[in-house]
Design goal:
By secondary structure, the chain is an alpha/beta fold. It is built from 13 helices and 13 strands. The mean pLDDT is about 95.
Length: about 375
């Protein structure tokens, strides 16, 4: 068994989401959003190189030695599956390992709103899951794909970098392809997927104009496309897509979003009330005729008011979702306050006064 497995196993058993290794510090585990050191000595460069190189293939070693970062999946029978990232830094190499759950959770187990399942009834269009790195986008997407796999007879093609959750075909035929291994880029994978009779295409990340354009083409031509962006809200997601396109293509991107975007799910992970785990809290935008009109007329900034008043359709602002979770005693109010946009309405729930803005009472 590779020596690295001992650290990965310990991190998983402690309930960590990530294990970090770097020269000059002991191994660290992220527990419920915060980094904690494992009781071990500081790693030196020779020791860390030995730990990492033991699990790499000859091709991966060559790529890394040539100065490239590495993204790959690592799995050991006694330890589990991880998404790995290796990188070069001052003082030597560094490594991060994201823990992948042994079983794909359902949408219900994740506590996600029922409207997300309703989105999956669409036959075509674009559904986006957004959020910062480490907010559970991949897990939400895996649950969505698992629902389609269990309830529809589709040809589902996923393009991932790297493959995290491994699906088995159920009602659907499910084909998973890794960028860098099976295809060179997301855009190339999308181009190939359109020739493979797909019903659903998952794009791990819409990271450049070419990939966005190919995803739009797929959604326009009768396919359901799921994708991710590193944006924190529905409005910022729309702005990011339009801004990413060349000037001459911005009107076409705007028209596409108004006509073919099904919805946006923007999520964050918030500590639970007992502090022992984190819960996904989501902002949801459904592309109604009213929102489509705002997109077409360049009034995207007015969309939040539609989300606020669209609760009967399943829509909600992030602040509304945070408040609901506080009132249902599902999340830590202090953590919710830190993630809220309009913090004033959260101040009455905060238990740590140091988080609140200080009022200057000095008399002039």
């Amino acid at each position: 068994m590779p020596k690295l497995d001992a650290f990965l196993k310990l991190g998983r058993e402690q309930g960590g989401s990530d294990i970090h290794l770097a020269v000059g510090i002991p191994p660290m585990v992220r527990l419920h959003g915060e980094l904690t050191s494992i009781k071990y000595r500081d790693l030196n460069e020779e020791e860390l190189n030995e730990l990492i190189y033991e699990i790499l293939s000859d091709e991966q070693k060559q790529q890394f030695d040539d100065g490239h970062d590495l993204d790959f999946s690592y799995e050991a029978s006694d330890v589990g599956r991880f998404r790995a990232n290796l990188f070069h830094k001052i003082g030597g190499l560094g490594a991060s390992f994201r823990v992948i759950a042994p079983r794909i959770p359902t949408l219900k187990e994740l506590g996600l709103p029922p409207v997300i399942e309703k989105m999956l009834h669409a036959n075509q269009g674009l559904i986006l899951v957004t959020g910062a790195t480490g907010t559970g986008k991949s897990t939400t997407l895996a649950a969505m794909i698992d629902w389609l796999n269990s309830n529809r007879r589709y040809n589902i093609i996923t393009l991932e970098d790297p493959i995290e959750y491994v699906h088995k075909s159920r009602q659907s035929l499910l084909i998973q392809r890794a960028v860098g291994t099976h295809v060179r880029t997301f855009a190339e994978g999308l181009r190939a997927a359109l020739r493979e009779d797909p019903d659903v295409i998952l794009v791990g990340e819409l990271r450049d104009p070419e990939t966005i354009t190919m995803a739009m083409t797929a959604a326009e031509t009768g396919h359901l496309v799921l994708g991710t962006l590193h944006t924190s809200s529905a409005v910022k997601t729309l702005d990011r897509i339009i801004d990413a396109m060349p000037t001459q293509q911005k009107p076409l991107a705007t028209m596409f979003l108004a006509q073919h975007l099904q919805g946006v799910i923007s999520q964050r992970l918030i500590r639970t009330l007992d502090g022992r785990s984190r819960k996904a809290i989501v902002e949801i935008m459904i592309n109604t005729s009213s929102i489509a009109n705002l997109i077409l007329t360049g009034k995207i900034f007015q969309i939040p008011s539609n989300l606020q008043t669209g609760r009967d359709l399943g829509m909600q602002l992030m602040d509304q979702a945070l408040l609901d979770a506080i009132k249902n005693k599902q999340i830590d109010p202090d953590d919710a306050y830190l993630h809220a946009t309009d913090k004033k309405q959260f101040q009455r729930f905060v238990s740590n006064p140091e988080l609140l803005p200080q009022v200057n009472l000095a008399v002039s």
